[in-house]
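thought: user wants a sequence for this fold. calling inverse folding tool.
action: design(structure=
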């Protein structure tokens, strides 16, 4: 009986530690309160280059806090591509309110705030590298195995989609935030490449797993929430709160803090 009680106590403490960050975010973040999602800001963040400034092909990956209480737990991620000489972008992501959930649409502002929450740039590929990646990204998007499915926890969701495409396309790497709930959901097997490259993810149904990578550092997934430590660019990564420390690597080299 004592062993069972110790086990239960350990589970309660672990759950409390995992939820401490999201609960803190809920308690301290007032953005969005009292407003409807339709009135939330959709202003561009100035991260997507204008065609005249960068006429070549561009591939960018973004992450932004989700709307409402879900934002205390995680982010929404998406992929944006623009062909050389084109005015418009293609924005690829998975949405909870659309059927099919997978959406690929034209837009001139792929870096708009996600209903009040400004995006962060995860990867920025340009020129010849982007030209090579775009058709492979489109093929991977078309082959995504769950285009009609969306499950906020533990996946498949928008972050599952982004991580899956990144893993499928050789040369496309991105360090997804620790708050990208669902990124460790694997459709087949228990083992996959880490999205940031040069690493591995081991995951059981997206609720228990571990990622070890050059740019991710060490991340442990417990009940779908992740925490970790990055030694290469020193930072502590906490559920809900996110990254505390140095900014992460922006893969691709096109951003201001490119892959180094």
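)
observation: tool returned 260 residues.
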């Amino acid at each position: 009986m004592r062993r069972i009680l110790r086990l239960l106590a350990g589970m309660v403490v672990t759950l409390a530690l995992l939820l401490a960050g999201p609960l803190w975010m809920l308690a301290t973040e007032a953005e969005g309160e009292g407003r409807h999602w339709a009135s939330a800001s959709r202003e561009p963040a100035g991260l997507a280059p204008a065609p005249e400034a960068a006429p070549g092909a561009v591939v960018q990956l973004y992450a932004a806090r989700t709307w409402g209480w879900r934002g205390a737990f995680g982010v929404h991620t998406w992929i944006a591509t623009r062909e050389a000489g084109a005015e418009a972008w293609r924005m690829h992501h998975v949405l909870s309110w659309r059927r099919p959930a997978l959406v690929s649409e034209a837009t001139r502002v792929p870096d708009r705030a996600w209903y009040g929450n400004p995006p962060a740039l995860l990867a920025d590929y340009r020129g010849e590298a982007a030209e090579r990646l775009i058709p492979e990204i489109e093929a991977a998007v078309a082959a995504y195995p769950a285009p009609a499915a969306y499950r906020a926890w533990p996946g498949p969701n928008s972050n599952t989609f982004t991580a899956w495409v990144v893993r499928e396309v050789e040369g496309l790497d991105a360090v997804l935030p620790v708050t990208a709930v669902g990124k460790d959901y694997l459709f087949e097997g228990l083992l996959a490449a880490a999205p940031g490259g040069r690493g591995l993810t081991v995951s059981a149904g997206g609720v228990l797993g571990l990622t070890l990578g050059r740019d991710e550092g060490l991340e442990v997934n417990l009940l779908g929430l992740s925490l970790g430590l990055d030694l290469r660019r020193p930072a502590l990564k906490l559920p809900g709160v996110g990254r505390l420390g140095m900014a992460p690597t922006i893969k691709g080299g096109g951003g201001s803090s490119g892959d180094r």
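thought: summarizing for user.
answer: Here is the designed sequence. The longest strand covers residues 58-65.
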